[in-house]
Amino acid sequence: MRLVKITNVVLLLWLTSAVPALGNASFEYGGKWTYTSNLFGYSSDVVDAYSTNSVTARLYPVPQVEVSLTSNYVNYRDSIDLWNASAGGSIAFVPLPSSSRFSLYLYGSFNGYVYRASHDGLDNNTSVLSGSLGYRLHDRLHVRGGVSLNSTRYLASDSKDQQFIDLFAGFNASLPWSNAFDLEIGYSFAEYWSVVGRRSFIDTRPEVPDSV
Length: 212
Description:
Elements lengths: L7 E11 L6 E12 L11 E12 L5 E12 L7 E10 L8 E14 L8 E15 L2 E14 L7 E14 L3 E14 L20
Antiparallel strand pairs: 1-2, 2-3, 3-4, 4-5, 5-6, 6-7, 7-8, 8-9, 9-10
């Protein structure tokens, strides 16, 4: 058995500005530079660095709804052929008022990923549907549970299409002196519609925001 060692160095730049002409809207630019000693996370020990640039527009048509449109570009220093771009959108809905002991969070997103011609077999569309329900037992104690469905469909072939289902439950406690304790457990399983050949080590699933 070989021990896999990974070293990551990350530099972040994040800018946010409001757009007065659009009312309840904001514009964000994010820049991230990452150095890693193990690009693919396994025993090949591929050293590389890459930059991630993202532009996001957020709209709030009503206080309970957030609509986001995002574009991302990832450039690699050495593994140039892994360059990829993505664009998509998401919507989050929090229907219950803050005064309610219950809290409900619903989220959905869709993103398309495009790679260079040499890796166009990785071009894919991803979608996420998630929801969580929380309950305030006490002013300082909240419990919650939820489910998330993540689907990836490849454009060139369905041989690598996959679906992930995540279940989770946890609680949050507010402690004295502005401290907090958060515990969450989860279970995740994946389904592959038809696996042919060797799967890519690149994970193209988008991040899911923290649920309430």
